[in-house]
Write a structure and sequence with these properties.
Layout lengths: L1 H26 L11 E6 L2 E4 L3 H12 L4 E5 L20 E2 L2 E2 L4 H12 L23 H14 L3 E4 L2 E8 L2 E8 L2 E7 L1 E4 L5 H6 L3 E2 L7 E7 L11 E5 L7 H22 L3 E4 L10 E2 L7 H6 L6 E4 L24 E3 L11 E3 L8 H7 L2 H21 L8 H10 L8
Parallel strand pairs: 1-9, 2-3, 2-10, 3-6, 10-18
Antiparallel strand pairs: 4-5, 7-8, 8-9, 11-15, 12-13, 12-14, 16-17
Helix pairs in contact: 2-4, 2-9, 3-4, 9-10
């Protein structure tokens, strides 16, 4: 046996040497021997949306529809974020206390997805026993390609597998260096909408962000035993404690931890693994300190901010190692989202949309879900476009103009 192994190694070494020698001889005079360099690309646009998740896709579509030249940069390979890569394919809540409170681009996408898939809608005219009953089940695979189609129709350019590594302020906006495999892109833009979930671009700019030492667990979604039928029942899930979406290293650790736990369940239960999401779903990361800061008292009292641009509706929903006990809002209470909470304090020409909204941890646990993220993304896109048209910065755009254009775009705006 040892003799056979020695012979194998001997002949393998001879073969490798011959192959290497042959390769050198053939390619010595070939242009293919030159090292491959990344392609340098320059994109000059009005609005750069970073992150194509729940908020980012909506922001880009709205920006493009307003005639603003828009580039959407997404580090992964599809749009939709938590709903698609994460598998939380039951967005909500679009209604409160018997009526719809969130419409516009986000609802258009969800509605078309359900209709094309032959699905069913909750009855928003009825107040459900539990908030989860009015979440809308969608086909996550269909949603991602519908979002791409709407981006294309709006003239939005998409750059997958790219992400900013440096941001520089210019006289008229920003210059952003993005990198992807085989690609180095310089983006020259007037406005940035940071939809990364953790305000990562805002962090690059040096503006203040908040995050507690303890974070809500992430969830890894999968299906054991039975085939998963999209837009039907929710997938199985397990907590990934300590899940951190801050950087590639922490995301890798969360994904490895979640998959290891799922493999353990497969072995223990003896059932086939029928479905596995590609990524952990993250609930919590950095939040900005904005021109306005939403507290849990603001949220649970339904405070109507002077610059309110959208509604939100969800229980205070803080997950922990022992699970979650949602705290429903009192009857009739519908929180509002102020424009100032989307603008980093002291900044110019940059906004956020999504779970990085300026808020305390408890308020954020209700604001972070899909429907309000869609609504605030549409508001951010409208504001950024109006800022460009007026040659100003988002905080100086008249709130009446923002609210008026949102109504033109079929969004539901709080009555102030």
């Amino acid at each position: 046996m040892k003799q056979n192994r020695r012979n194998f190694l001997k002949y393998s070494a001879v073969g490798l040497t011959a192959a290497a020698t042959s390769h050198v001889a053939v390619s010595a005079d070939s242009e293919s021997a030159q090292p491959v360099k990344p392609v340098d690309v320059t994109s000059e646009v009005d609005v750069l949306v970073v992150g194509g998740g729940t908020a980012g896709a909506v922001a880009a579509i709205q920006s493009g529809r307003l005639g603003t030249e828009t580039l959407l940069v997404e580090r992964f390979s599809q749009l939709g974020g938590a709903m698609t890569s994460g598998g939380v394919a039951f967005p909500g809540l679009f209604d409160a206390w018997g009526k719809q409170i969130i419409d516009g681009v986000g609802w258009e996408l969800v509605k078309e997805c359900v209709e094309l898939d032959g699905g069913e809608f909750p009855d928003f005219s009825k107040v459900p026993r539990g908030h989860w009953m009015n979440q809308v089940h969608i086909n996550q695979f269909l949603y991602s390609i519908l979002a791409e189609e709407k981006c294309e129709q709006a003239g939005v350019k998409i750059a997958y597998h790219e992400f900013p590594e440096a941001v520089r302020e210019t006289e008229n906006g920003w210059e952003v260096d993005c990198v992807g495999f085989g690609t180095r892109r310089k983006v020259v833009c007037k406005q940035i909408i940071d939809c990364t979930g953790g305000a990562e671009v805002v962090g690059m700019m040096g503006y203040k962000r908040l995050r507690e030492e303890e974070r809500q667990p992430g969830s890894y979604l999968f299906q054991l035993g039975e085939e998963h039928i999209p837009a039907s029942d929710q997938l199985h899930r397990l907590y990934v404690h300590g899940a951190d979406s801050t950087n590639s290293r922490t995301v890798t650790e969360a994904n490895l931890t979640g998959r290891k736990s799922i493999l353990k369940k497969v072995r223990k239960r003896g059932k086939r693994l029928m479905h596995l999401q590609p990524e952990t779903g993250f609930r919590e990361s950095y939040r900005i300190v904005g021109e306005t800061f939403i507290t849990v008292n603001d949220y649970t009292s339904g405070k109507v901010f002077d610059d309110a641009v959208a509604y939100a509706f969800y229980p205070v929903d803080l997950h922990s190692k022992t699970g979650v006990k949602p705290k429903p809002l009192k009857p009739g209470v519908v929180p509002t989202i102020p424009l100032g909470a989307l603008i980093p304090k002291g900044s110019r020409n940059v906004m956020v949309a999504g779970r990085s909204i300026s808020s305390d941890r408890l308020a954020n646990s209700g604001l972070r879900v899909q429907a309000p993220c869609m609504a605030m993304a549409q508001a951010a896109a409208v504001t950024a476009t109006l800022a460009i048209a007026g040659g100003t910065t988002p905080s100086n755009v008249p709130i009446a103009a923002v609210r008026g254009e949102l109504k033109n775009q079929r969004a539901i705006v709080p009555e102030v």
